[in-house]
Every structure is written in C-alpha cells, then in structure tokens.
Amino acid sequence: MDDCIFCQIVDGDIPARVVYEDEDVLAFLDANPIAPGHTLVIPKTHYETLGDVPAEHANRLFAAIHSLTPVVEDAVDADASNIGFNNGAAAGQEVPHVHGHIVPRFEDDGGNPIHAVAGSPPNLGDDELDALADDIAAAADEPRD
Ligand code: 5GP
Ligand code: ZN
C-alpha cells in the first residue's frame, strides 16, 4: 500500500528505530512513545485489522510479540507491560496497518489497566452472558480462512 506509513517503513522509505525483523514481521519503536520502550510489532504484509490477517501470518506476528515482550521489558527495566491492539478505527486505530503495541509499565507510573479502554461497561444479565458465550463458542468453531 503506497500511502501506508507502516508499509513505507517496511520498504525502508521512512526511517524507523527497528528492534526486530524477520521474513514476515517488523518491530520498531513508536515515534510518540507513551512509555520508554513502547514498541510496535507489525506483519510486513499490509492488513488493516487482525481479522484480515491469515492464520499463518497471525501466528508469526503473535510469536514475535511473545518473544519480544520480555526483551523490551528488560531493556527498559520495566516491572510489567500492557500488550494491545487498537483493532479498527472505533477502537482508536489511527494507522490502518495492523500493529501490536508493547507498552512497558512501571510501579506507580500513574497509568491504567487495559480495562480502562472501553466506554460504558454494559450491565448484562446471566441469560445474556450465556447467550453471548454460546454464540461466540459456536462461531469460534467455524474455520475463518
Ligand atoms: P494506533 O492508534 O493506530 O494503534 O497507533 C499508531 C501508533 O503509531 C501511534 O502510537 C503513533 O505514535 C505511531 N506512529 C505513527 N506514525 C509513525 C511513524 O511514522 N513512525 C513510528 N515509529 N511510529 C508512528
Ligand atoms: Zn501498510
């Protein structure tokens, strides 16, 4: 995608502080970090959201996040980290090339847990929760790609 910032980073047309690269995955420091070591992990192929990523590429993306997280934490002497995707514009995704955020966290850094991202929590009864769980479980059994 010619007009995608992250594709341009993959192609070397925009500089980035790359911290990891393999055949399918690139990881680089966020240009506007919300914590020291804030790292973005992307598939080199352009997909907009997680649902667009084929399983094989998703496996490699998540494997890289898994191996990089403790490395990033150690590099900045973090106490913990939040790992997250703004998955779609309504969830705050600004760059439409799927990317995982590794955000190092520190005792008393004044931040919030990932529960803080949503708007108004719904008030769901047991029947609604049961129905939701059934719907998701049934759909999860369906092959996606
Ligand atoms: P989003 O809201 O899409 O999940 O987050 C996009 C992230 O990409 C933001 O944290 C932003 O700081 C980062 N970002 C945007 N443009 C660039 C860039 O050109 N280089 C780097 N390294 N990060 C960028
Ligand atoms: Zn892209």
Using only C-alpha atoms, the radius of gyration works out to: 17 Å
Provide the CATH top-level class. Alpha Beta
Strand content: 15-25%
Helical residues, percent: 25-40%
* Major sheet: 5 strands, antiparallel
**Count of individual beta strands:** 5
**Second rung of CATH, namely the architecture:** 2-Layer Sandwich
CATH homologous superfamily assignment: HIT-like
Features:
single chain, about 140 residues, alpha+beta, HIT family, subunit A, five-stranded antiparallel beta sheet, 3 helices, 5 strands, about 30% helix, about 15% strand, binds guanosine-5'-monophosphate, binds zinc ion
What would you note in describing this structure?
- With 145 residues, the protein is α+β, with helices and mostly antiparallel strands.
- The chain has a single domain, classed as HIT-like (HIT family, subunit A, 2-Layer Sandwich).
- It has 3 helices and 5 strands.
- It is globular and about 50 Å long.
- The two termini are 22 Å apart.
- Guanosine-5'-monophosphate (5GP) is lined by residues 5, 14, 16, 28-32, 40, 86, 92-95.
- Zinc ion (ZN) binds next to helix 1.
